[in-house]
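Quick one: co-fold with NAP.
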Amino acid sequence: MEKIKMTTPLVEMDGDEMTRIIWKMIKDILILPYVDLKSEYYDLGLEYRNETNDKVIFDSAYATKKYGVAVKCATITPNADRVKEYNLKEMWKSPNGTIRAILDGTVFRAPIIVKGITPYIPTWTKPITIARHAYGDVYKNTEMQVEAGSKCELVCTDKDGNEIRQTIHEFGESGGIIQGLHNIDQSIGSFARCCFNYALDTKQDIWFATKDTISKKYDHRFKDIFNEIFEAEYKEKFDAAGIEYFYTLIDDAVARVVRSEGGYIWACKNYDGDVMSDMVATAYGSLAMMTSVLVSPDGTYEYEAAHGTVQRHYYKHLKGEETSTNSVATLFAWTGALRKRGELDGLSDLVNFADNLEKATIKTIEDGIMTGDLYLLSNLENKKKVNTEEFLLAVGDTLKAML
Ligand code: NAP
Ligand code: MG
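Sure, here it is.
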């Protein structure tokens, strides 16, 4: 069989620990035999980050801006233990944080659904994709504990030195707490555009919710910016694609989400996204079945698994013990990136290959072959637990039978 040709490279960001082992297996067993892979390789493994003083992260992010598509392996975010373990020059920052800041992107997280693993909310038969605004609000707040008798005011000094002053609260007999939050129109606008673009890209409705009835200036500004951008730039495209933008209050959204069957994107303010993404991920069953894509407002895409480097399995692997680590989310990061590359470059055989590889993965699990984490959750009668490599080989067999 002739290998599928690519015209433009995708950016390949290698990573750490067990996911680095899986990364190579996925390429060797499921990608390289079928695709004449063109990639620009960056080693984001902690050792090389330390060697380059993190420069390799910046290089990989700028390459992503240049080529438009990246696939990333999970990476260690160093803490004090890791500084010792890897003898680091510094406690380097989170690679994901650095890449996100350079691409100014929004992260979309979606579960991969298979028969045999029923979500805790069994009516959720389609994925719910969560988009979290990753700037400001309570994550960049100023707060104080204040004494009884304090008068607290909100003061804004404009560029000409004029002051606007409003009382927050006059504390009487009891002291208390106050908090100052902010957000930026430009960041809210970027978030809105990322969300609308991704909705068009994946042909799904998009929901957004705030508490604008109570927060008549702050939350209302989010609602207005979303609405203005939608009306001016996206309404016609949404009509043509047959999808909808739906705005409601956050409490109404929560109630509707629980009653829904899924199949839409839920855009959340920063705190709502923090909380709701954990609820949604848990309800779908397994972190190992969550994919994640960082989308920038100018349309670059970086795909990855939502989980970490699976450190505990890696230490077993190093001791020569057998592991049964789930590679599905990392594999779907690869298929997501290959499909996007194919779409951007007009390569229908690359798009078809990505689709088939995803179908083969799901079919393998639905036929009862799965890693230990899914084995514990699956309600299939005939199921078999396999090790890390056996699973990928089984997907390869399913794929060969399909092609
Ligand atoms: P983790 O790697 O997500 O793993 C936590 C636990 O979840 C594992 O021990 C395992 O449970 C289960 N698990 C996660 N993914 C799995 C998979 N693919 N297959 C089977 N089981 C899976 O989180 P962590 O151990 O807290 O973090 C390890 C490292 O990852 C840290 O250094 C952290 O900085 C990094 N991290 C990176 C990213 C990223 O790059 N996006 C995200 C999160 C964390 P059992 O042990 O019970 O089997
Ligand atoms: Mg959270």
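If it helps, The chain has a mean pLDDT of 95.
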